[in-house]
Amino acid sequence: MDASDHEGNDMTDTDTTRTVAVLGTGIMGAAMARNLLRAGHAVRAWNRTRAKAEPLAADGARVVDTPAEAVRDADVVLTMLYDGGTVLEVMREAAPAARAGAAWVQSTTAGVEMVGELAALAGEHGLVFYDAPVLGTKQPAEAGQLSVLAAGPAGGRPAVTPVFEAVGARTVWTGEDGAAAPSTRLKLVANSWVIAATTATGETLALAKGLGVDPRGFFELISGGPLDMGYLRAKAGLILDDELVPPSFAVTTAEKDARLIVEAGERHGVRLDVAAASAERFARAAAQGHADEDMAAAYFASFDDKA
What is the reported pTM? Predict the structure, then answer.
């Protein structure tokens, strides 16, 4: 069966294809849409700047002009937008056009409190809400190797499981109450580690530059020991080889996530000095002209100019 033939059909126990509205076709959303298409799902793609969604038409997606057009009669609505405020704005426009009982898979890193607002909006329109951020960046997204952190009603999981299987290598269920944001909480914890590691990598290389130390000597020193790790070498390689574009995870997005982490910590009585400092480093790097480069470009924040 061609994926487009599924549009508007009712799901059966044996039917694993879905009509999926993908709202947001940036680095992550576009990759997820392509993997959904490869898995045989029908995809309607919308992006505020339509030109960013247009390439998906060649892969079989139906590119539409409005969020409402994308979600109409869709089985699953997948939101992968910049932040929670953007998701709220877009879904306020789209949700009235969605059919009651459709699943809303919210994959934007939106912040704990915002997830509650989004879940409330879902309830107002009879949508089944899933808090489902993903762990991974551009390359695993393109390969369908993301980790999906999912929370939502067990009874509706058959509707969303084929979607998760298309975009990810594994799904980690964190609970049945998506409104409580258990998956987003876990995602923020994971991202706090990613941001801390990225910041440490940049500062280590910057100090080496300032002291006239060859970075290769540092890598030889830690090679094979407990201080060595693949992520350090991957991010360092982007800096040393000047391969910061296209980004796997952009500086501006990293700053947004770092501020969400700081806010979450403050609301729960936890002071997060490294995350707060990292947010400022990302902001300085963006002001220096690195906003759309990989988050590793926070390295440049150690210097007064582009170094």
Answer: 0.92
